Amino acid sequence: MESLNQTQFTEFIILGFSNLADLQDLIFGIFLVVYLLTFSGNLTIIYITKCDPSLHKPMYFFLSNLSFLEMCYTSVTLPKMLQNLWTKNETISYKGCVTLLYFFVTFVGTECVLLSVMSYDRFVAICKPLRYSLIMSKKVCVILTSFSWLCGLMNSVVHSIFTFHLSFCHTNRINYFFCDIPPLLLLSCSDTSVNETVLLAAGAFIGCTPFLCIIVSYAYIILTILRIRTTKGRRKAFSTCTSHITVVVLYFGSVLFTYLRPISSYSMDKDRLIALLYSFLTPLLNPFIYTLKNKEVTNALAKACFKR
Fold it and tell me: What is the C-alpha to C-alpha distance for residues 206 and 208, in angstroms, rounded to an integer?
């Protein structure tokens, strides 16, 4: 593996939407709206879960952490995209690419584990309701959230070290929207076999393991709900899970498709569209998914607006 100081490029060119030159201004406007809606929507979720006493529950503690994570997600990638679209300058420095990759991969890993933690919270709430407050204490919630961030950080350190010890000597044009592992591996002129192995192994640990935990949690949840005698009771119990299930399907479907495949099977023209799903669409939809079908959140939001 070649050393980092053998890299011949001091900057990369992120192609992004360069093939749609006539639509750059329109695309800039769309993504600016997406960023503002994502940031303000998730910030609103954090605000009402902190200010409304009725939402001081483990479920909403994790939700506020998820919203903060979504804000971080988009704040790492979208501002640079908007800058490139506005200035028509598609370059990013080598250090800037390293930094973006590090934080982006951190947030990807953290969200995978946090969504698994949220499914465990729902499992305890529905399957062990009498012990819920004891099991999901404030201390436990903080520990589980911290563990999610720790997993994301460790995952990112490993990938960042392996990725940026590669040599980039053929071209510095990234056919993607931001610096991510797959497009950089395709760009490298070094042997990437070790990197691909690490990507698949880490992906199995940080992606598949939480996903399997979610499946197991919901298997127990469904069995418990089916034992509830009344239709109203079953509907009420399941309604607390629908928002989380929707986010899990959107997020894990695109993330696992992106990171758990051989690099040789990648097609950046197609795969970068998949990246839009978990990088921008999920963070944008998160506030709407968790408010439209959640009466506690909508009531808290209505009270906050009425007070103003």
Answer: 6
Each residue of 252-284: b (16+ CB within 10 Å) or e?
Answer: bebbbebbebebeebebeebbeebebbbbebbb
Per-residue confidence (pLDDT) for residue 164, from 0 to 100: 78
- Residue pair 77/113 in contact (Cβ under 8 Å)? The answer is no
Judge contact between 19 and 95, C-beta under 8 A: no
Amino acid at 204: A
pTM of the model: 0.86
**What DSSP character marks residue 229?**
S
pLDDT per residue as tens digits for the range 223-233? 888 887 777 77
Over its C-alpha atoms, the chain yields an Rg (Å, rounded) of 21
SS3 174: strand
- Cβ atoms of residues 115 and 207 within 8 Å: no
Do the beta carbons of residue 26 and residue 193 sit within 8 Å?
Answer: no
Q: Which residues pair with 12 in a beta bridge?
A: 92
Structural domains of the chain ordered from first start? 4-307 (1.20.1070.10)
- Surface-to-core class of residue 95, CB atoms within 10 Å of its CB (0-12 exposed, 13-18 middle, 19+ buried): exposed
- Note whether 42 and 291 are within 8 A (CB): no
Task: For 35-52, write each residue's pLDDT tens digit.
Answer: 999 999 899 889 888 888
CA angle, 67 then 100 then 88, to 5°: 105
